[in-house]
Amino acid sequence: MSEYKGEYPSASPSEYTSLELLRATMPAYVLGALTADERAIYERALRTPENASVMRGEFEACQATVNALASAQPVEPPAGLFDRVITQVHAVIAQAEAAAAPPLETTAPAIDRRAADRRRGDDRRVDDPEDRPAEERRQEDRRHEGRRHDDSVAVHPTPVRVVRMSRTSRATRAVTPLSTNAVDARPSAVPLVGWWVAGAFFLMLVGLGYYAATTRRAHAELDGRLRENRVLISRSEARLAERERLMATLLGGRASVVLVNLRNATTSAAAQFFWNAREGRAILNVFGLPPLSAGHRYQLWMLRDGVATPVIEITPNEAGAVLVPGIEMPTSTTGVTQLFVTDEPNAQKPTAPTFPHVLFGTVDAKAALLLDTAPPR
Amino acid sequence: MTSDPAPTTPSDTESDIACLQAIAGGDEHALRRLYDRHGATVYGLVLRILGDPEKAAQATADTFKQTWRDAGRYRGVRGSVLGWVTTIARLRALEMARADHDARHDVLSDGTSPLVVALPEETQQAITLIFFGGLTQYEVADRLRIPTGTVRRHVEMGMRALRVKREAP
């Protein structure tokens, strides 16, 4: 074991910061070298849960050493010393008897003795004192008097284990005098219980009401979010269907797509016209068209065999953009040389385009994109 | 009249506890048995502390009287019944020694205990003054004119040496 080189704490148990320090102080504590204050501080430090179990073995070993030291020089006591001891014991008993004797002869002492025996858990049969031998009565009395002297030597450095008793245990009933208040209070106990039960029901109902209101609010909120999400899903489904139609237009079967770029030399407006000549379908993607004046619309034309033919009416958004799928076109580019967009009045059905063209592009059949999307054979 | 200390065996401890239980029940014969078994140890201890046979006899009688009173309080914390009884005896003897301050016995004048005789002289003195003289570590430091820290180290080393000696087979 290592020897502790430092100083021992003398102010508070919190200064015993290590087990090494506690171990180093243990011999001095058990031998009796500490002052009363130091001993109290050390005992408080020992009683902490983390130290108590660890230091128990150290304490027992030191105590055994001290016991050996105390027993190292036995000397035969003088003859007759035990008689002196027993005389003193008898004197103590007699003194206690005198202090405890009742002024009048009644039956109370016998009753009290029986109760005291029951309190101590004495299993022996308690007979009437008058029926027992004198020696037995004397020893019985000594036991009681010995109990009444409670000035014990402090030989216990740690708290002794305490047996806790419930309010209704037999032990508690044995040592607790019956209270008349408790007896009087018994009839009023039932209504009191009723009030407690009613109060508990009320609290439970309030709690359930609050829970229901909260749940209803949460349900309405979730329902609203569900409706919003359904609308968003519907829009997404519509866009997806449009994209699918667009893809089918472009890539249906063995597609032969002609791309026509339409431009305007003076503005930023432009358009792309994807024409699947094999399927006779086209897509127009327009952007940057200037805002229309009131009573006007945009019209797409194709110049076929030198004659301007209306294809489709265009309605762009506020930004001047629109994607128009599924435009019906001839299944051959033969004779189609130009595509253009014009600004036409709404009033009449277009028969001939006005000038100037808003957008204009030339069809180049040689630039057709051949896309083979048929499954491999 | 000095006799060799007999080691305490488990059966002795068990019979000591049975004695105490009987004493707690008011059995004077059990007190007699306990006295016969440990009376010499108690008397030797208090005689070592008080240095006077008459005072030692009184302290011994007081010790067994208190054993009679408190037999029901024994919890075995001090390791054995003998340890408990000698603790009562030592405290009673030291109380008497302090009360008679003018004629207080010098425990160093009787030499040292045979158990500590193998220890360094200053360690023997420190342990003797503390255990038999009832002095604190500070009072021992004053008496031996050594620092308190040295007293602590003497106590720690001496007690550990005694422990090793006791636990040796």
Short description:
The complex is a heterodimer of chains A (about 375) and B (about 170). Chain A has helices spanning about 20-30, 35-45, 50-70, 80-100, 110-120, 135-150, 170-175, 180-185, 190-250, and strands at about 255-265, 270-275, 280-285, 295-305, 305-315, 320-330, 335-345, 360, 370. With about 375 residues, chain A is an alpha+beta fold.
CATH topology of the largest domain in chain B: Rna Polymerase Sigma Factor, Chain: A
Q: Provide the CATH top-level class of the largest domain in chain B.
A: Mainly Alpha
User: Can you count the helices of chain A?
Assistant: 9
Strand proportion of chain A, as a percent range, falls in: 15-25%
Oligomer: heterodimer
Give the termini separation of chain B: 28 Å
The helix-and-strand class of chain B reads mainly alpha
Uncertain segments of chain B are 1-6
Overall 3D shape of chain B? globular
* Distance, first to last CA of chain A: 91 Å
Total strand segments of chain B? 0
Query: Can you summarize the main beta sheet of chain B?
Result: none
Number of E-state strands of chain A:
9
What is the residue-mean pLDDT of chain B, rounded to a whole number?
86
CATH architecture of the largest domain in chain B: Orthogonal Bundle
What letter string, H or E per element, gives the SSE order of chain A? HHHHHHHHHEEEEEEEEE
Rg calculated over all Cα atoms of chain B: 17 Å
Descriptive keywords:
heterodimer; A: 377 residues; alpha+beta; four-stranded antiparallel sheet; rod-shaped; disordered N terminus; disordered C terminus; B: 169 residues; mainly alpha; Arc Repressor Mutant, subunit A; 2 domains; 7 helices; 67% helix
Could you characterize what this model shows?
The complex is a heterodimer of chains A (377) and B (169). Chain A is built from 9 helices and 9 strands. Chain A is an alpha+beta fold and 377 residues long. Chain A is 45% helix and 18% strand. With 169 residues, chain B is mostly helical. Helix content of chain B is 67%, strand content 0%. Chain B contains 7 helices and no strands. Chains A and B meet through α1, α3, α4 and α6 of A and α2, α3, α4, α5 and α6 of B.
